[in-house]
Amino acid sequence: MINDTFAHYRxxxxxxxxxxxxxxxxxxxxxxxxxxxxxxxxERMGLQESDMEPARPVDLTGxxxxxxxxxxxxxxxxxxxxxxxxxxxxxxxxxxxTGARACSVFWGVTTPGHLxxxxxxxxxxxxxxxxxxxxxGDQPHALDEELTVLEQVTAHESGHPDLHTAAxxxxxxxxxxxxxxxxxxxxxxxxxxxxxxxxxxxxPSGGVVELDPDLDARLRLADPSVQALAVQRAVTEVxxxxxxxxxxxxxxxxxxLAADKVTADPPGLxxxxxxxxxxxxxxxxxxxxxxxxxxxxxxRWQAAQALAxxxxxxxxxxxxxxxxxxxAAGDQWPSxxxxxxxxxx
Length: 345
What we know:
The protein is α+β, with helices and mostly antiparallel strands. The chain has helices spanning 2-14, 38-44, 90-96, 148-156, 161-176, 182-186, 213-221, 224-241, 248-258, 275-286, 296-309, 320-329, 333-344; strands spanning 24-31, 53-55, 68-73, 76-82, 100-107, 114-119, 122-128, 135-136, 189-192.
């Protein structure tokens, strides 16, 4: 069954969708707690009914139109965007999944393909279609069974990107039960030609706002002197965790901090042959052997980078070292944030 589904999308991409097979977004929205009206759905995508005009994705001559096409398949909404990406934006996908679930696959000419699954306004599973083992979200393994076909293609056909896109579309069908086929593409649907915009949440720039919004907010409310102390504490914690305290460059950097002598070029910590550079090169040489979040080489590099970023010239984001500390800490981040919360009171 799954092999037939994969073959269907491979043929579709090589056939009627071939003109836009290099860049496509396909999203399925399945209402659960009440069906939104078409106007409500459009609003979630940053559109209005006045933006709509009827059109067939594939016209009577067999030519593919370009635009955002919005239609139905049973009780589900279907959005197809040849050379478009609006519904792949996370801020849009999460809005579309309010009271519903939404599954979207996207790839671009220069952008790696991505598949995302959201339910009730939360990102459940997110992954790059060329690296399906590396999954993120609230429940990274929620689509394990559906992703089998993509894993098989990745294991055996890594040199054929079109097969990855076909397999990713097969995953969307397996997850939602909705098929995209020539019959749907030949039917008239609502079409939008203009670029839509959805306001992004009002977030401060920099810091760990995306990684740990609670801690970010607490830090920004604290006195600047406490902020600096908390950031340095986090850096020291991850340096200790990765047994880097005895490195000469680390010792020199910590001594400068203790003496309140912040310099843009701490000895042995930055530059081509520095500790940070060597650790980075070690990570790059072995990247993709394991998931980055589980790679101790990346964690050690990030710990050194956290210290190095404390010495960046004035004007740089004061919370940037925390981003590196977050990735250095890995599973130990909860203990680091507890230490910081204790300092913040």
